[in-house]
Amino acid sequence: MSDWTPDDLGHGYEKRTIALGEDPDGEGTIEATLVRHTPPDPVRAAVLYVHGFSDYFFQDEMARFYTERGFAFYALDLRKCGRSRRPGQTGHYVSDLAMYDRELDEALAIVRRETGDKPVLMSGHSTGGLIIPLWLDRMNRRPGGTKGAGVVGVVLNSPWFDLQGKSWMRTVGTRVIAAVARFRPKDMINLPATDAYGSSLHVSGHGEWEFNTAFKPLNGFPVSYGWLTAIRRGHAQLHRGLDIGVPSLVLRSTRSRPARSWSPDVDEADVVLDVKQIARWSGCLGDAVTVVPVDKARHDVFISKKEPREAAYAVVDTWLRATGLIGS
Asked: What region holds the Serine aminopeptidase S33 domain (predicted)?
């Protein structure tokens, strides 16, 4: 475990590595990276954010939103992602989503030690929005359950709850992918190239956001057979029904719009996931689930255009007040 050191984000950010030892997937020594923002005084609660695929934490506006409301803000770059990826490692590759429990458990332990066992809110985007509920479901089966571990709620931002695209990809296509993964798990699937989403975000294209394109490529990381098989197993677990043990807020766009290249319409829809699938499977989380569609939101609702982004933050603020995590 390392000490806290300055993070490249600046603005009062620090990071520390979480050593994870040898990679079960055979790609050398692995680690995760925990980032924190200068905490408020006093600390009312804490939030731990987990990114999605082809992503990492860079959203200063999100950290400031929570800090202004009394939350100590932390974000985790998972193994082989963002700050945590090392030369020779396959970006975002993992053969079983349950492997992430190691860094999630350790990150949660650090947050609780540093904040004096304050209640912790989990926040996940896209693939992170699948990883977190699966982890919490396993945690909820331990003595004391999720609440005993200090977690009081979850905010999921366009969580990846099913495989988008044609229906055959969710049946025979998934079986074919799993069969290839048995023998060539790190071979990449030949998917159509697209930078529609990435170019809608970054200042070098049509967006307003600065981020490291080595950590978050505009055309995304390639998708391997083994990784997608792990995702599909996670989807199947979710579809059978989870019990995460705490209330959840699910945010999504009001519509999807598949696209390979940018157009103005890309800025006002989810061009990555099928929002109808998010709506369909949200009830599988267990406990109380609140689903709120955000009009004209992008895939990541918190890096949408100004109006839908502000609407999304207003929804979170209202939900936090309703749960009692912040005062009225």
From this structure: 42-253
Residues 159 and 124 sit within 8 Å (Cβ to Cβ):
yes
pLDDT value at residue 28: 97
Q: What's the CA gap between 209 and 75, in Å, rounded?
A: 18
Residues 274 and 289: their CA atoms lie apart, in Å, by: 19
Give pLDDT, residue 119. Answer: 95
What pLDDT was estimated at residue 86?
97
Q: Cα 114 vs. chain centroid, distance in angstroms?
A: 22
| 269, pLDDT greater than 60 | yes
d(CA 202, CA 129): 22
**Could you tell me how far CA 102 lies from the centroid of its own chain?**
16
* Sheet with 5-6, side-by-side order of all strands: 5-6, 13-22, 29-37, 71-77, 45-50, 120-125, 151-157, 248-253, 289-294
Instruction: Output the pLDDT for position 168.
Output: 80
Written as six digits, the tokens of 309 are 């982004």
Nearest to 128 by CA among 59, 194, 189: 59
Measured CA to CA, the distance from residue 136 to residue 140 in angstroms comes to 6
Q: Is the pTM of this model over 0.90?
A: yes
Q: Which domains does the chain have, with CATH numbers?
A: 5-163+241-258+270-323 (3.40.50.1820)
